[in-house]
Amino acid sequence: xxxxxxxxxxxxxxxxxxxxxxxxxxxxxxxxxxxxxxxxxxxxxxxxxxxxxxxxxxxxxxxxxxxxxxxxxxxxxxxxxxxxxxxxxxxxxxxxxxxxxxxxxxxxxxxxxxxxxxxxxxxxxxxxxxxxxxxxxxxxxxxxxxxxxxxxxxxxxxxxxxxxxxxxxxxxxxxxxxxxxxxxxxxxxxxxxxxxxxxxxxxxxxxxxxxxxxxxxxxxxxxxxxxxxxxxxxxxxxxxxxxxxxxxxxxxxxxxxxxxxxxxxxxxxxxxxxxxxxxxxxxxxxxxxxxxxxxxxxxxxxxxxxxxxxxxxxxxxxxxxxxxxxxxxxxxxxxxxxxxxxxxxxxxxxxxxxxxxxxxxxxxxxxxxxxxxxxxxxxxxxxxxxxxxxxxxxxxxxxxxxxxxxxx
Length: 408
Description:
By secondary structure, the protein is an alpha/beta fold. About 40% of the residues lie in helices and about 15% in strands.
């Protein structure tokens, strides 16, 4: 079976869509499939093409048996609604055209979070008369409204009509959460064609390790209890809550023991840095995104991982992919997200759930885990046990079965 996979994120980018797509496709190649990925020049999240690449009409490479075709797109930073839409639409057109030159394809997969890539998947499926699989990573455009990037308008309603059209036209929808599946069924989509394959962890890369002493010294983290956030610094994440917690701890007796590390980039990164400087927060360190092979070194610096999203009903349906990497690393989680992902944390006893945007609760639980080593080690052990249920290779095999069924 020849699978054509359309995605606007792919390694060397290190965000969740890039990692999931690569790790799934790698396993499908091992299983005997031919896999072609159409993507753009790596540029996320700063909107600058990575060294060694150019934003050209067509360039190819082979990555662990995966044929990767990179096409031209309008590149912009992960900020500014209109520019991002132009970015998404340009990739939709380029990937659709490029797909016409890929021969003997049996099934096409288009992945969100933005659905213009899924639009391309549907168009390619229609033109080639092959099944179209919609990998649903986000309910978009509802998420635009949830973070306040765009108010309810005629444009949003048009996008929602396109969204429903794509769900109905897909031969198979692969959702990353059960909550997404339930939401689609409630909107009238046939539940028999919706399958759930959650995100997971590449356990060959994310596993327990001692703190990287070179990084500890270079970042001034000796003797600190480090709470860290690793990922996109966007509107959806409301990382001001971490700054609020840092400010509270910095003002308490003994608070100098605690430090916060924020690694990544995004639309809110500069504003967060300026906010931290204005508050005089010496207990917060910002680190820019690092290459995929360096991410685990930075995870090793953390004593606890902080996962946080803005307090809104939509985000009760998402499962941040970094949760599974935390489990693989054996890092107890302070989880500021409600809903399905909070249930996973509670059921696995992988950490402590706190109310989103509640800095006081975050401070309380940071101090609790720092003070009670027995409780800390219990969470650590249960993280590692839970990670086995989310091994990426097993999840890739599960998804391949669904895709094969759509083809058959």
